[in-house]
Amino acid sequence: MKKSILLAGLALFSNVWGQDVRPVRDDIGFCWQRPQMERLMAMLDETEPEPPAMGGLVAAISPHDDYLYAGRVYYPLFKNLRAKEAVIFGVTHGSVRREIGDPQGVLILDDFAGWTGLGGPVAISPLRERIKKALAKDDFIVSNQAHALEHSIEALVPWLQFSNPDIRVTPIMVTAMPFERMEVLAQRLAEVLAGYLRENRLQLGRDIVFLVSADANHYGRDFANIPFGEDEKAHARGIEQDQRLAGELAAGTLTDEKISKLTRELWGDTHLDYRSTAWCGKYDIPFALLAIRRTVLKATARGLKGELLRYSDTYSGGVLPLQKPGCGITAPFSLKHWVGFFSAAFRLE
């Protein structure tokens, strides 16, 4: 009897969530239980300056590196973020591209009923299905496999759900594409997003926020990226370059020219190459900002003004000294292997 009851319960759970819930990809670098996030936030509350209020925030760029590396960079963005739903633009990392055949020039949506969160599922916004119906068929693909393999979007979910257990998300992976294709696809997506805002009378920042998940430079032989060498001077030059690029993008009024300039700095001869910096956000940052800027302009007739919240890297910051954090690190750090990351906020002008 007990066995049959247990099996019936498991079947019911599976039908409601089970296989329909997007599984956790990284169960080491991120926290997936509320007590773990509570310990992390308590430490950051005690050791970090009080972050600014997020009132008026419309969009942001967030890291997706391990929490013990990048916790101080996530913190000023998510501490006071209380939006009811979030559109999250994520990377399509190289390992994922190889597994799914390297689609290009499209967005990747999922078909999960929910996503795993802090001990419970996170709901999907109806916006996702609206996007599928509105965009042309050659503008996107639907791949649960891609979203299950990719960790960049899931990194933001525990931070969002910690502050708002009822958060709804719209996950969007961005693939490689030239800038001209970005402009066309961003315009089409903006039409959909702006229509959703108007019809549901959503207030930017309060009801919905747009988030871009990206890390900055990946430096070292492991990434085939050592333009400055492998000593302290090389590290200093690498983070100086990162800070300049992030600062120029986030400072002041957001324009298409700023976004285009970032791609010229990050890409090489074509959009498939890179120069002396290997950002995993080299596609999702420019595409997302193009789409967000157009959405806000259509919905409010106003522009966006940015602010760099914080920059750091794995070598400079090291690992947060948190005992029994419930999470760990997924990669080493040294002068020969480090990753940069930053958080930035964009508000209405």
Describe it.
By secondary structure, this protein is an alpha/beta fold. It has a single domain (about 25-349), classed as LigB-like (Protocatechuate 4,5-dioxygenase, Chain B). The chain is built from 12 helices and 13 strands. Strands 1, 2, 3, 4, 5, 6, 7, 8, 9, 10, 11, 12 and 13 form a 13-stranded mixed β-sheet that branches. It is globular and about 55 Å long. The termini are far apart.
| Distance linking N and C termini | 64 Å
Low-pLDDT residue spans: 1-18
Sheet bearing the most strands, described?
A: 13 strands, mixed
The CATH topology name reads: Protocatechuate 4,5-dioxygenase, Chain B
What CATH architecture do you see?
3-Layer(aba) Sandwich
Quickly count the domains: 1
